[in-house]
Structures are given as C-alpha cells and as structure tokens.
Amino acid sequence: MVSPVEKKPKFKAAIDGLIYALKEDKSLQLMVTITLLVFVGSLILNIEFTEIMLMLCLSLVVMAFELMNSAIEHLANVVMPKQDKRIEILKDISAGAVLVVSIGALFIGVAILVKYLGGR
Predict the structure, then answer these.
(1) Beta-strand (E) ranges in the chain?
(2) Contact 114, 74 (CB under 8 A)
C-alpha cells in the first residue's frame, strides 16, 4: 500500500534537512563558522595537508553529531511537547554526545595548532 503523502527522494530530503538546519540552528551556524576559520587559519599557518584534513574531518564529525542532536530534540518536542523529565534526560544525553566529540576535536585541534604556533 502506497502512502497518500508523496515521498521526496532521499538525497533531496537530506539536502532540505541540511539547509533547514543551517538556517535555523545557531549551534550549527557557529560550528560552520569555526570550521571555516580553522581552515583559513590552517592555510595561513601552512599546516600540513593531512593535519588540515584531520581537523576538517573532526569538524564534520562534530557537525554531524549536532545535526543528530537537533533531530532528536525536534522529535522529542513532537512526541512530548510538554515538559517531561524523561525527554529532558534524552535531550541532555544527546547534547552530552555533542560535547564529548567537541572536546575531543578541540584537544586534537589545539595539539596540531600548538606545533605551528611555536610550541612543541
């Protein structure tokens, strides 16, 4: 049985979701800005290609976690629009996952940058 709601192609849905998130999610906007600054700074500091790719990869992982966190928050708000301790815990855990990968990416990024800013 075919659903009466016409489905859009998966790639189009993914692009639409990404565009929506980039327009609406302030955390994601900040992460994109930081990633661009890191990339430009890496080029200015003449950081090795593999290290630039590592930092960009880590930035993309953090952004992907933020997208998943936002999706979980939106779904939780639809399922349970009123305040509920279980939903609050779910959102906190999801945000915690973003925090873990963000801290890891920060430590690795700082370790790479210190080498090029005169530290060893």
Answers:
(1) none
(2) no
Amino acid letter for position 45: L
- Is CATH 1.10.287.3610 correct for 10-116? yes
The residues spanned by each domain of the chain are 10-116
Mean pLDDT of 69-98: 93
CA within 13 Å, CB half, 81: 1
DSSP label at residue 48: -
pTM across the whole model: 0.86
How do residues 15-65 score in pLDDT, each as one tens digit? 999 999 999 999 999 999 999 999 999 999 999 999 999 999 999 999 999
